[in-house]
Structures are given as C-alpha cells and as structure tokens.
Amino acid sequence: MKLLNGKEAAQALMKQTAEEIKAIIDQGQRPPRLRVFILGNNPASEAYVGRIVSTCTKLLIDVDVQRLEEQTSEKALLTQIAASNADPMVDGIIVQLPLPAHINGATVTEAIDPLKDVDAFHPANLGRILLATPRYFPATPYGVIKLLEFYNIETKGKHAVILGRSHIVGLPLANMLIQKEYPGDCTVTVCHSHTQNLHEVLKSADLLFVAIGKPGFIKDDMVKEGAVVIDIGINSVAAPESKTGWKIVGDVDFDSVAPKCSYISPVPGGVGPMTNLALARNTLQARLHADSHPNLS
Hints:
The structure is a single chain. By secondary structure, the chain is of the alpha/beta class. The protein has two domains: 28-116, Rossmann fold; 134-273, NAD(P)-binding Rossmann-like Domain (Rossmann fold, 3-Layer(aba) Sandwich). Helix content is 39%, strand content 17%. The chain has ten helices and eleven strands. It has helices at 6-26, 43-58, 74-86, 105-111, 123-130, 139-150, 170-177, 198-203, 254-257, 272-292, and strands at residues 2-3, 33-39, 62-68, 92-95, 159-163, 187-191, 207-210, 227-231, 235-238, 246-249, 261-264. It has a six-stranded parallel β-sheet with strand order 1-11-8-7-5-6. Strands 3-2-4 form a three-stranded parallel β-sheet, sandwiched between helices. Helix 6 (139-150) packs across helix 10 (272-292). The longest helix is centred in the first third of the chain and has 21 residues, at 6-26. The protein is globular and about 55 Å long.
C-alpha cells in the first residue's frame, strides 16, 4: 500500500504555478487577482477562505476578500457580482458557500461571468467539461485529477466508481474520468443513495472515489484487493483525546481499508492540499484569458 500524499503533490504543483505567475510579473504585467465574497460568520467558511488567501498570497496572487453581513440581500450581492464582472482588474470571482437561506445559490452562480467563474460551478463551465472543451475545472475534482497524475496512476480501461453525485464533485469528476485522455478513458459508474447492490458495485472498482460526507462509511469489505481509493470526504468528529475535542476524518475507514489498497489518499493530507491550489490554477488561467481578450485585461 502506498499513500497518495497530497502535500507532496501540492508542493510540486505550487512550484510550477509560482514560476508561471513570476513569468507574468517579470514581463511587467500585473499578477492575477481573485475576489472572494463571504456572507456572515460561518467558521468553516472563514477557515476555507483563510486557506485560499494563504495559498494565493504565497503565489503572489492578489486576493480581495469582501465580507458582507449575513442579512445582505440577494439583490445587493448580485449588484456587487455585476460590478466585479465588469471590473477589468478582477480575474476570478468566488462566492463562498453555503449562502444564507434567503439567497438563491443557483441565481448567484449563474450571475458570475463564466470567464471569471474560477469555482467552475457555472452551467456554461460545467457544460464545457461535458463537451471536452473545459475552461476551468471545479477545485476538488481538479485536485483529484492532479493527484492521479502526480503518482502516474493508470486509468485507461479501468473501472472507476464514484460514490456521490453532487455537481461540485461527483458529476464533474465522472465527466473528467471518461474523457479520451489521461487521466481518463475509464469506465465510470456513479453511485448514490438509491444504488442497488451498492457493496457489489463498490467492490468492482479499480479506482474508488468517495465523496458523501459520512465519516468512515467505506469499510474493508466494500473494497477489492489492489484498488486505488481516493477519499474526498472531510468530516469533523468528536475526539475527546485531542486538545480541540474533535478531529478531521474522511469517508473511508482508513485503518481497515488501507491494507487492501495499492494506493490510498489519507484525510487529512490527501485531496485537501490540492483543492486550494486548484483554485489558484484557475485564477491564473483566468488572468491569461484576460490577456488574450483586451476588453477584459
């Protein structure tokens, strides 16, 4: 069994990204700029945005965090998004989820200019993935793909099973793995809460990707010998023995499953470190796109 070390993979991709951004700056051009909207004081959202800021700052990407009150109206948020769409100095836009209940998430997502949608949640960007003409990839699936590439995991002809069908992770990942290029050419099965004979389907996977938000759901009897297991889940569970009283675990029961795997990603330290870097990569791509379209630069 070999660990898929996301920290190691992220360091390599960080170096490549830093060199590309430095080349832009050395040419006398401005660095990429990302604008992040966050509503309210959700601790998890604050922590996630903090990691985005940390990663981007190290890469010399300018980050402008707009903190809005939780009661901010949908109209007011849409007005700010429209202004950011029109601002030639803003390359990428993120609206941090979850949003307050009075704001329609789909409306907000579709209001972002697809060229600046570095989360890649806009229908136009998700559709481009389906058509194999991607502009950006959602951060988590992109991080998964880069992790596979870093460790040269064979995918061609393999049966990839994805547990979870969200439009943020499961569905885009399925479309990425089925494409006619590495790491793709998989036969893909997407499982969900209504999948029949779930254990049998999971155990048929050469590559198993788990993203359902249920701590330790995948046990050793659901995984075949030699499988590659990518744990995308991030869950907080009670841990009285720790200083904080809680710890982060994945959707895979690591201790029981790991001995059966050829490769497995840990939580934390697997897919997670790749995610923020994926957002930075998308922001860099948005900056390069702005250069190729003078009306946006």
